[in-house]
Write a structure and sequence with these properties.
The complex is a heterodimer of chains A (about 220) and B (about 450). By secondary structure, chain A is an alpha/beta fold. Chain A is built from eight helices and eleven strands. The longest helix of chain A has 15 residues. In chain B, about 50% of the residues lie in helices and about 20% in strands. In chain B, the strands form three sheets. A five-stranded antiparallel β-sheet of chain B has the order 2-1-5-4-3. In chain B, strands 7-9-10-12-11 form a five-stranded mixed β-sheet, covered by helices on one side. The chains are: A alpha/beta (about 220), B alpha+beta (about 450). At the A-B interface, helix 1 of A face helix 4, helix 5 and helix 8 of B.
Amino acid sequence: MRVLLAEDDPMIGASVRQGLRQDGFAVDWVEDGRAAELAVAERVHDAVVLDLGLPKRAGLDVLGTMRRSGDTRPVLILTARDAVADRVAGLDAGADDYVVKPFDLNELSARLRALLRRGAGRAGPVLTHGELDLNPATREASFKGEPLALSPREFALLEALIARPGAILSRAQLEDKLYGWTDPVESNAVEVHIHTLRKKMGADFIRNVRGVGWMVARPASNA
Amino acid sequence: MTSIRRQLLFWLLVGLLAGVAVAAAGTYLRAREEANELFDHQLQEMVASLTGAPFAAAPAGLGDSDAGGNALVVQIWDRNGVQLYLSQPQRVLPQHAQLGFTNLHTDAGDWRVFSALTDNQVIQVAQPMRERRELAASMALRTIVPLLAVLPALGLLIWLIIARGLKPLERVAAAVGRRSPTQLEPLAERGLPREVQPLVQSLNGLLLRLGQALAVQRTFIADAAHELRTPLTAVHLQAQLAERATTDAERRKALADLKSGLERATRLSEQLLTLARAEPGVEAAERPPSVVDLLALAREVIAELAPLAAEKAIDLGLSEGGKAMLRGDADALRALLSNLIDNAVRYTPAGGRVDVAVQAEGDRVALAVRDNGPGIAPLERQRVFDRFYRGQPAAAPGDAGARASVRGSGLGLAIVKSIADQHGAAIELGPGLDGTGLGVTVRFPATA
């Protein structure tokens, strides 16, 4: 899952970026409102973490622009404890949730996961596809009732694929989900990760459409 | 404790009593004068009535029949000085024959004597002065007794009038007593006596200034708390990352970040303290101004900051011109220099240059700090003196990493302004070196 972080304080931004990465998110960090608007317009992120006190363009304006353009992706705002009015204004302007500074990294991650889950129309914490269970909160996976050991990238790859069963995702699309702007992308990384996953789960689970991309089949039970 | 009411009452009564005394004395003197005329006339009449009377026999009962009792003493002599008659033998009066009115002092008191020469006799009538005095005294007494009688009533009246007159003061005192630090609206000035109005006006002026000072302080504390929250949030997150670290390398990195986060929070709190100290009126009494050599101070501060400049390969130097003595607070001036130079070094990219110049300009001493960093856009030059305002650099900023290193508290120039104001100095923002960057010039009044 790829998250856009808009935060002007360099120390807070760096820490949040690192913490979210540790929790398995791909993170892009912008430091002012104008950059945030540009990044939002790219529509590559699954969620936005937005500080309201951004220079150049206020967080609320960024949020307003987003919602006016019909963008329904989850937005979580960062506010101060005493700034109730800001919080209310943020929620009214279309934010989905907020955390109060100083906040806890675990809480931020958990709230982001909950937002993404609800955005995908699920209530439970575990993603299920056929015989695969993924728990984004604990980063644990099981396949056919057996625990499945996955690297963070492999986990993110599976998460992206089962989010849209039956759809073919290109290498570029998958890379977007796996890497932030500043993350170094190894060439053939997606192929390497898919190769490993197939070894762990069998060749049938992820199908290759040559020259186009990869997909997981719609589960028969759901069809 | 002195009481206006009691003092007024006391002195008014003293004045009244003095007036009564003067009136009594006046009455007494005038009454005695009148009595003198009256009695002198009586003496003359008496002598006239005796003239020509045969003195074979003494005029019987002359002394007794008189209204003054046996007060009058009559003596009659013939031409040869032989006493023909003495009304009261027990009274010893001198054989005195000076004609006309005389005053006599004898063992039996003071006498008023009138002698007249008739055909062949000298008639002398003497009367004690005591009588005249008693008459005058009783007249004076009759004048002052009624005055003394109304004195207590007057005193009570004065007491009540003063109480009434002082009522507005009590009202003002009660109104001031009701004021609290959060409730500083001015006192009502209408309907007050002319004497109390200046007091209330002064009090209102004080309340106004107090309210303004409190508002400034409140804003400052709110701003300070708000600004401290950001570094504390960062420290909180950095500590959590240190907790999460699984490898030694990660932990070392996380702890280094945490340390710089703490340094930032510490620096901010120190700057807040400096700013609070530089507030007008604060500690001014505790730190009397002394004569400060700005040049020497600049040398010291540059020496302190040289390592920071060296780390960024910034060419930091001082140029001087003339004596730079000024009257001021050495600690505050050190904070001013330190903030200006530190700012310049922080905001100037590696390899840049920072020039500090201390120069005499007539009756002023000019301190200039110029750099070739990003500078401040002209439109923002006034706002940068606001507390917690962080300027946007005029030049294009570098990447996120570079900006992180120049991130300040937003207090440096507010501190500089506050200290400059305290010293009656003027600040000017202009271009820095080589047409780029920032130049800050502070002009202090010089001292001999």
